Amino acid sequence: MANIYSVSLGCPKNRVDAERLLASVPAMTPVDTIDEADCVIINTCAFIEPAIRESVSVIAETIEDIAQTAPGKKPLLVVSGCLVGRYGAAVLAPELPEVDLWLDNRDLGAWPVKLAGALAERMPPSPARPSGTRFLSTGPSYAWLKISDGCDHTCSFCTIPSIRGGFSSTPRDALVREAEELLGYGVRELILVAQDTTAWGRDLPAEKGLRALMERLLPLRGLDWLRVLYMYPAGLSREFLGFLRDAGRPFVPYFDIPVQHAHPDVLARMGRPFARDPGKVLDRVREFFPEAALRTSLIVGFPGETDAHFKTLYDFVERTRFTHLGVFAYQAEEGTAAAAMPGQVPAAVKEERRNALMALQASISEALLETFVGERMDVLVDAPHPDWPGLFTGRTWFQAPEIDGLTYVSGPGVAAGKMVAADIVESRVYDLVGLTEPDAA
Fold first, then answer.
1. Which residues touch 237 (CB under 8 Å, ≥6 apart)?
2. Which member of 9, 83, 285, 368 has the lowest number of beta carbons within 10 Å of its beta carbon?
3. Burial of 141 (0-12, 13-18, 19+ CB in 10 A)
4. Is the pLDDT of residue 223 over 70?
5. Separation between Cα atoms, residue 333 and residue 303, nearest integer Å
6. pLDDT in tens, 91-140
7. Closest by alpha carbon to 45, among 76, 3, 13?
8. SS3 for 207?
9. Contact predicate 94/87, CB 8 Å
10. Please, where are the H alpha helices in 255-346?
């Protein structure tokens, strides 16, 4: 039996990779501290410089913790994921010789075999046990379903193709089996993730696109909500939107569309596959789903972004009124075309622009959430609040886990993993507060 302590950094796609790896270990037992572990796995992120720094810092801290807490019993130290994919084990190993095994995310299929081999050298064989596809680490309410890996887009600022390779869809039957397994654990919500979810199946002609996958997922027993993240505008055709509208629940009309900017000059330099007017696709979504929750991510301070370009972006956010918005100051990433572009924007200017957009979004979010006070809404309960007994954190249909605000809920019948009807009694800038009635139990 292998006691494993694991950390997964970065995006939900990384989390899925880590869950699949953990599920591959026979008789695996998760532990909460390093001194209990036979094996420590750090699944890294390296998308941008701050993520690289965090990954290296976590590895270094873990090496120190191992030296202090397990002096007579060094666990197998495994580092996997995007840091390895970006730099390679040959570069990293001399800098971090304490790491026993490097797993490159360009070779995900080999991870279980390599980990099993490394564990076998240290431990007696574990008894065979029935194993699933995933070791679920997100709690009882939701799970991520990664439907493809890699990316074929050539955005000038992005490192993903060089780290994860070209676009590759997971076959539909495998995804349906994985979804059924996750729902069998009692999960109520599935969230489709990929670098570009709307591109799913384009490399598998027989699969006939994302609609064909969703037609298999939507009827699955036990599925209350199906959410789709990372939708590229090109995939949101009128035909696909019409299908989603007619499908209804469990699909939730939550549209995460990473437009990155609003000015055509900046979009063109970014190399985005839609370089004219991103507002058109948002208008199209609202034509089919007037109630849609819109989420996007934006980059400010891209090379060559002028005050006029930024004003266009600011006006776009003010006009569109996104339900959720993430704003990132541009990072010049080594090896990308954008890093060598002229007109690099000073850090202070980038931060000023980011702060201006986030202040605008805070006022928009506060106003939008105020409109829900007094309504009764379904809340999917995620977990007990760590500090307040009887209070739980959960989400309404327009709140995705780990990236959006929360709904704090209490009252009869509230428990992790349950869907409860709650009266919204208070709103904050990004969060809601709800109470259940006595008959909710």
1. none
2. 368
3. buried
4. yes
5. 12
6. 999 999 999 999 998 889 999 999 999 998 887 765 555 457 889 999 89
7. 13
8. helix
9. no
10. 264-270, 279-288, 307-320
